[in-house]
Each structure stands twice: as C-alpha cells, then as structure tokens.
Amino acid sequence: MTATQSRHIARADFPIIIIGTGFSGIAMGIALKQAGIDSFTIYEKADDIGGTWRDNTYPGAACDVGSYLYSYSFEPKPDWTRTFSPQQEIQQYLKHCADKYGVTGHIQFGSELTDAVFDEASGEWTVSIKKNGRKKKHQARSVILGNGALSTPQLPDITGLKDFKGHMFHSARWNHDVDLAGKRVAVIGTGASAIQIIPQMQKIASRLKVFQRTPAWIMPKADRPMRALEQAVFKRAPQLQTLYRDAIYWRNEMYATGFVVDPRLMKAGEFVANLYRKQQVKDPILRAKLTPAYTMGCKRTLLSNEYYPAMGAANVDVITTGIDRITERGIRTKDGVEHELDAIVLATGFMTTDYLSKLNLVGRDGRNQNEVLAEKPEHYKGITVRGFPNAFLLMGPNTGLGHNSMVFMIEAQVRYVTQCIEAIRNRGLKFIDVRASVQEAYTARIQEKLQKSVWASGCQSWYLDKNGRNMAAWPGYTWQYWLETRRLSLSDFEQVPLKVSAAVPATA
Ligand code: N01
Fold first, then answer.
1. Between the CA atoms of 166, 171, 175 and 176, what dihedral angle is there, to the nearest 10 degrees?
2. Interval between CA 432 and ligand 1 midpoint (Å)
3. In angstroms, rounded to a whole number, what is the distance separating the alpha carbons of residues 380 and 374?
4. pLDDT at residue 356 in the model
5. Would you state the torsion angle of the CA atoms of residues 239, 405, 369, 488, taken in this order, to the nearest 10 degrees?
6. Which pLDDT band, with edges at 50, 70 and 90, does 4 fall under?
7. Which of 84, 90, 193 to mutate to test the pocket of ligand 1 (most atoms within 8 A of CB)?
8. N or C: less crowded end of the chain, CB within 10 Å?
9. What is the mean pLDDT of the chain?
C-alpha cells in the first residue's frame, strides 16, 4: 500500500465517537463539522440534549456566569431574557446550536457508553454502547469524552438514607411529581445548587430545614431581566454585544489573580461579602452561623440576592448540628433531636474527582484509565492521558474554574482536539499518544502552581481528591489555557503511522 493510499483510507474511514451532548459534546460536533469531518456519532445516555442543563431542573436553576459570556463565541444570542439565564433557556440555546450547525442528526439518544477498549495493532477503539438494555460494539479511530465532571450525583455518606418513608431526591434528579407546597422540607447542603433551591423552597414549604455543614461565601448577583431595547441594540449591532461579552470576560479574569497568584487578595472580596452579609442578615446568631471560616474562593464563591433573606425567613431553620442519621420520619441530628419531614432534598454535589471511573476506558497496556490515573495522576492539558491513544477528554482534569466561563475552556479544548484529529487523518497516522516525559513535566508544572492557589489554603472542597490532590481546577487565567491549547505541537506525541515500520519512537 502506498503512503497516498493509506492516507486516503485514513481519511475516508475515520469513525469518531463523542460521548455526551452538553456544551462540550455539542461544541466538539460543531468543530468537527466546521473542519469538514462528518464521520462522527454522538452517543447520549438521556433522551435529550443538554448535559447538566438538561439534568438540573430544580426550582431556581440558573447560571452563575453572565449569559452573554456563558454561550459559544461563534453563536451569540442577543435576546437572553436575563443577565444570568435560567436553566431552560440555556438548554434551548444548546438545542438551537446543535440544529443550526447540523449536529443533531449525528446524535444517538438513549445510548450509554459502557466500555471502550483500544487495540494497538489496528489503532481502533472498540466501544460498547448500551441501548434499550442491549449492548452493541462499535469501532472508532477516536473517542472523545464530553460527559463532564458534574453529571453523576453524589449521595451523602449518611446512615439510613434508605430508611426515610417520605420523598427524597438529589438536586440533579428533581422529582417534579412531588408537590412540596405546604410540606416540611429539608435541604442538605449549602453549595451552588442549594443556594438556588433554598429561596424557592422557602416560598412554598410550611417549614424548611437547611442542614449546613460549611457556610459558603456569598456575593450579590447582578441578575435582572434584559430590557427589550438592550436586546434590540445587540441584535442590530453585534459588535456591541461582543464588547459586552469581552467586558464580562475580563472582569471575571481579574478574580483569577486572587485565586492563583496571591490568595491574600481574596481579602478584598471577603470584605465585600462580609459587608453584604451584615446588611442582609440582621440576626447576629444566624449571621455567625452563615460566616465562613476559610479563605474565599477555596470552595466555589456563590452569587445570590435571595439566599440570605430566605435563610432569615420565619419558616426556615438553619441547622448546623451534624447529622447523625436519616430515620423513617426525618433526620436525626447528633444532639438527638429528630426533625420530622415530608421531603428531603440532597443538594450534596457530584462525583467530581472519580467521574471517569464509571467509564471503563481500557488503553494500550490493557489498563483502565481510572486505575492509571489513581496510580499516576498525570494528564496533558486535561485533554489526553498517556497510554490512551486518540482518546480525548473534554472538561477533563485540571480544567475546572472558580472564576470564569467553562464554555471558554471548552472551546479551547475542542479546537485542540480538532487539530489532533486533523493531524492523525492528514498524516496517515494510526494513532498519537502523548509522550510520558511531556505529560510528566506538564503535570508537575500544573501541580506546582496549584500549591500556591487558593484551593490549597486549607478547606475541604470538591476540587480535592481523597488524597488532597487538586485534579479539578485550572491554576491560571483562562487566556493562559487558551495559549496552552492554541496550537498543537505534534512533537509532544508519540506518532505511530498506519505503516508501523515508520514509527517515531516513544522515548523522549
Ligand atoms: O455541590 P457542592 P453543588 N452532610 O459540592 C454538602 C456547579 N453548579 O451541586 O461544603 C451534610 O458545591 C456540602 O457541605 P461541605 C458548580 O461548579 C453550577 O451545589 O462539603 N452536608 C455542600 O454544602 C458547583 O461548584 C451552577 O461541608 C453535606 C453541598 O452538600 C458544582 O456544580 C449551579 C454532605 C454540596 O455542594 C457543585 O455544586 C449549581 C453530608 N454528608 C451547581 N455531603 C451554576 O450556576 C455534602 N454536603 C453554573
């Protein structure tokens, strides 16, 4: 076979499998289309598009990043209804993008990835997809995981979860069949989801009990409906909308200075947040309960105008005594008090640090990716892991943010992955695999920066894994990540051509 022939085969027969239809999966499909690559299928375990914006339908679900930034750069939407858009509107936006850019037809719904196994001889991934209870194997040259870290609910490690006779559900699996009006409701947790749920529950529950383990830093939210005039101006003058988007972006970027350069700068934010709490919470006992004892930013800083008034309402109890167990009738705290309840909402977050464990990705040496990461927690740009050729992660390790839009990070990743795929196809390669030495140096650099970040300032957060290692956050400005991923340097990778004899050695 000549080199030209093998290149031709590589181009014509290059099936790509993408997992998930959240912001990252859809962006990946769009980027491939725009690069003229049509040979991809997106598998989605649910029946609709949207990822986290499909799953989180709890009352009050909305974005805490400004709408005009929390959207694709290539698809501006002039008529967002609010400065911080609600969940349904974001999901609609994603559906619109998938339709407009011709990606919807590539999606197979109700299809869950169970495992993917790489074969070094052929350079192919055998991907098992479960649909309607039946598993089917598909061959792919590349696998792209866009399933995200915030997709699998984390149930709390509390005794008696199954004993409760009332209604109980996780914030990301809201049971809309249960009418909570006039009921005795508990919310466990006071993170990003809880602070949106609590004000809604306070309005309808007869009694709301909030079980708080750690208070969050809360800042005011500049949330308001968009005026018709503003929407019309953005429609007629898209440059103005771009300017507005850029203004939100650069303002958010400023906060990264405190997160990753010098956490002492967070004192300025703490000053504002303390003032805000003082204004909003008049009762000194409640205010003390709601005052965090860790550096702002160490856990996600939250934005809300409704949270503090709700926590101070007459029908709300803020309970800081630890939970002993869940009983048939409610929650018993460590002081022996049993709080009788009709419903319990578990706003207890997601399985963020071992989210890859559910996907059985088996690489070159027959090992599962999660196993490999547990033994050697290394990756390259949060996108690839040595030993897993032609497999790419979106929103992978060390790409999470506390200060700016994830959509920006996703677009950077998608651009990088597209370059990888183009290189493999155009150069007639069988696969590329990041060099061990490159990955090691990258991880060491990232981890060193993380040591100085606010996430290392001493709190427990979902950014840290069970060994206290930060495998979640990006320790820099987002424009630095953009620079990191702007151009693919193929020399970072071992390159194996379709004709094995011409392999570039793996050593480096
Ligand atoms: O989850 P969390 P989340 N007993 O992990 C508590 C994104 N998001 O769903 O802090 C008692 O932040 C836990 O207490 P503690 C965003 O990136 C975005 O709220 O561990 N309490 C904490 O209070 C966010 O960071 C938006 O002491 C228990 C809470 O449960 C991420 O999703 C909106 C407990 C969990 O908070 C996760 O947010 C919503 C136990 N056993 C979410 N176990 C946007 O607007 C846990 N807790 C974009």
1. 120
2. 37
3. 15
4. 60
5. 40
6. very low
7. 193
8. N
9. 94
